[in-house]
Structure of Amine oxidase domain-containing protein:
Amino acid sequence: MAKKPRIVIIGAGMAGLTAANKLYTSSNDLFELFVVEGGTRIGGRINTSEFYSDRVEMGATWIHGIKGSPVHQIAQQINALQGSDKPWECMDGLLDEPKTIAEGGFELNGSMIEPISTLFKNLMDFAQGNEASKWCSMSRRLGNKSIGSFLRKGLDVFWDSCKDHEELKGYGKWSRELLEEAIFAMYENTQRTYTSAGDLFSLDYEAESEYRMFPGEEITIGNGYSSIIEYLASVLPRDVIQLDRKVAKIEWDRCDSRPVKIHFLDGSFVLADHVIVTVSLGVLKAGICNDPGLFSPPLPSFKTDAISRLGYGVVNKLFLRLNGNRKPEELPSLQMVFHRSDSELRHKKIPWWMRRTATLSPIYNNASVFLSWFAGKEALELERLSNEEIIKAVTTTVSSLLSEPHNEIMSDSNSNGFEVSFVDVLKSKWGSDPLFLGSYSYVAVGSCGADFDTMAEPLPTDVYHHHPLQILFAGEATHRTHYSTTHGAYFSGIREANRLLQHYHCVGV
Ligand SMILES: Cc1cc2nc3c(=O)[nH]c(=O)nc-3n(C[C@H](O)[C@H](O)[C@H](O)COP(=O)(O)OP(=O)(O)OC[C@H]3O[C@@H](n4cnc5c(N)ncnc54)[C@H](O)[C@@H]3O)c2cc1C
C-alpha cells in the first residue's frame, strides 16, 4: 500500500490547529497528520487563565468586529459567548464614562478632552482609509512615512487652527498646550497597544489603510478564548497533537522520498512530505539570525528580507487585585494623563514604565481585578519587575492621580487624600517567552503589506520541483489584511490547508 503523505504542522496555536482541523475534516483520512507544539499547552497566543476566580485572557482578548468573523461564528456555534460558570473579563465597565485624570490630581472634563479625542479619532480614521477632515488632509499634504509623524503633524495643524484659545485656568501648572499634548499622547499610547508598535514613528503610514476590521461590535468570549482552540482541537484523534516537542531545525530540500526532516530539541527527528510552519514572526526573526538557524539550508533571501523588514512588537497585560478594604466601585475606570518624561513637574515616584500606559479599568463592572495594557519598552520592563515593585508603582500612581489637585512635585510623604492599594498581580510575559518573543506583527517603516504575501509563499518556489510544497507558512504574520489577529491566524491556517488539499485534488473550501 502506498504510504500516506505526512504533514507536520509546527505550532498548536490558532493557525496550526485551524490547518489541522481543516486537513483532517476535509481529506477523508488521506494524510498522516501531526501537530508538534514546543510548549506544554495548546493555544499559543490564546491563553485563558484565572485570577481570583475571574476568567482572564493573557493574550487574545477581543473578537474585533463580529460580522464576518470566523472566530465569532465558532463562538456562537459552541455557545461560548455568554459564559455561565464564573465572571469573566467582559470589560462592560468600559461602557461607563472613565475618569480622565491628569498628573497632579486634575480631573479633566469633557470640554477639555473632547476636541483632542475627536482630532485623534479623525486622524486615525483618515490614516485607515476612512473619512477625511480638514486637519487630516492638511497634515497628509505634509507627507508622511509613519503614523507617528502623521499624528504629530495633525496635532500641529490643529494648534495652528486654534491659536487664539484662551489660557487654561484651574489645572495648576498645566498649560493648555502641555495638557492637550499629554491627552493626545494618552491616545497614542492606546494606539501603541493596538498595533504593538512600541514607537508609532516606526509604524508605516501607507500600510495602515490596507488593514481590515470586521464591522459590528467588539466583544470578548465568556467561556474564554481558549474554548475556540479546544473546539478546533476536539475533532483530531488523540495522537495528532504532540506537546513539549520544540523544533530545533527544519532540514528541507533533501534527496529523500520525504524531503523534510524536522529535528527536535531532545535530539529526535521526524520525516515529512510537507511542514506547515506557524511559529510567530518573533521566532522566525530569531530563527534566521541565530547560528545554527532554524532552517537548513537557510531560507532564500526574499523570505529573510520580508521577515527582517516586518515589525513585531511586545504588548503585555497586567491584572491587579484591589485590596479588600477598598470597595471596587470606589476606584473608577481611569484614563491617565502624564507629564512628558522630561518635565520638571513629574511625580518622582511614578516610574517611566507607568507613564506610557493609558488606562486602568475593572475587568467587569465593580470587579476587584483591574487591567492595564503595556507596549514596547514598558511592556518588556514589566516582565522584568517583581510583583512587589509593580504593586508599589501602580499604587503610587493611582493614589497620586486620585488625590486632591496639587501643584507641588509630590513625594511619598505628601500624597494627600485617596489611598488605594493592590495586593496581587498577574502579568503576561510574551516578550521573553522563547516560544513567542513578542506579541503581534505590524507594518514597520521600510516594509509594506506585500511583505505579508511574501511571508505566505511556500518553498521551494520552483513549481516544477519534484517535491513541491515542502515548507508552507501560516500564522497571523502571513495575512496581508488581517495580520495581528486571531482571525488572521485562522484564515492563514485555512489557506495553507487548502493549498495542500488542492495539491492532492481534495476540494478545499
Ligand atoms: C497580549 C495579546 C493580546 C492580543 N489581543 C488580541 C485580541 O484582542 N484579538 C485578536 O484577534 N488577537 C489578539 N492578539 C493576537 C492573537 O493572539 C494572535 O494573532 C494569534 O493568536 C496568533 O496565532 P498563531 O497561530 O499565528 O501564532 P501562535 O499563537 O504564536 O502559535 C504558534 C505556536 O508555535 C509554537 N512554537 C513556537 N516555536 C516553536 C518551536 N520551535 N517548536 C514547536 N512549536 C513552537 C508556540 O508555542 C505557539 O503555540 C493578542 C496577542 C497578545 C500577545
Q: What stands out?
A: The longest strand covers residues 315-322. Residues 176-195 form the longest helix (20 residues). The pocket of flavin-adenine dinucleotide is lined by residues 10-16, 36-39, 44-46, 59-62, 64, 246-247, 278-280, 283, 315, 317, 428, 430, 435-436, 439-440, 475-476, 484-487, 489 (CB under 6 Å).
